[in-house]
Amino acid sequence: MPILFSVAMAVVPALVLLVYYYRQDRNKPEPKGLILKVFVIGVVSTLPAILLELLVSAFEDPAAWPPLFFALFEAFIVAALCEEFIKLSVVRLFAYNNVSFDEVMDGIVYTVVASLGFACMENILYVLDKGWVTAVLRAFTAVPMHALASGMMGFYIGKAKFAASKQEEKSLIKRGLFVAIGIHGAYDFLLFIVPLYGLIPAAGIIPILILTYRALRRKIREAVQEDTELGRA
Asked: How far is CA 193 from the centre of its chain?
């Protein structure tokens, strides 16, 4: 029973956020079958993400690097770059070219869904190792962070779908990836330096979550407005 409870605590936050962001696309909701597919692939994508992180970690030398530089590399490259790149790949491979991807808002929806699949599996792995208390903490921190960082990336993926040129499309996708890496990396960095500076830096994740939530809300309004004005919704 404790294991089942812990797993439930790991899964429920991702599902709650999935429903919340799915409902943001009220004008033209995405097919539930495709949403489920992207979510499940997001879950499975944790495996290539782990392998990629292990590969990138091979370039680390903790003994030779200053601790702060090591934390930066771990946060922005090993964690943020690898994980956000994998989520981007899930959307590009399994949703981007689907006929149902026909709004800027769809970029946000599918990227959030992929990220929550990823976060769900990551949460299960953490919870099985550390217990339900970890599940509760991550429900209000790590899981929303994945959705918010990737949601910001999704806005630019949605814009890229309707870019006027291939060059602009690639530029928007890169911009979205860098934005997600910046948010994700900053969040992880503040946690990774706790062994160096104590718990005070960890408090910085709260304003990151709040500010990113507000920024994503603005991007959602912007996407919906553009889709409506151009007759996509």
From this structure: 21
How far CA 195 is from CA of 18, 57, 226, in Å, comes to 33, 19, 45
Report in angstroms the alpha-carbon separations of 23 from 13, 18, 226.
Answer: 16, 9, 18
| Predicted pLDDT at 130 | 80
DSSP 30: P
pLDDT tens per residue, range 133-152? 777 888 899 999 999 999 99
b/e burial code for range 19-43 (CB count within 10 A of at least 16 → b): eebbebbeeeebeeebbebbbbbbb
Tokens standing for residue 177? 């990836």
SS3 61: coil
**Per-domain residue ranges of the chain:** 2-21+30-229
Lookup: tokens for 50: 């782990």
**Stretches in the chain below the pLDDT threshold 50:** none
HEC profile for 120-185? Answer: HHHHHHHHHHHCHHHHHHHHCCHHHHHHHHHHHHHHHHHHHHCCCCHHHHHHHHHHHHHHHHHHHH
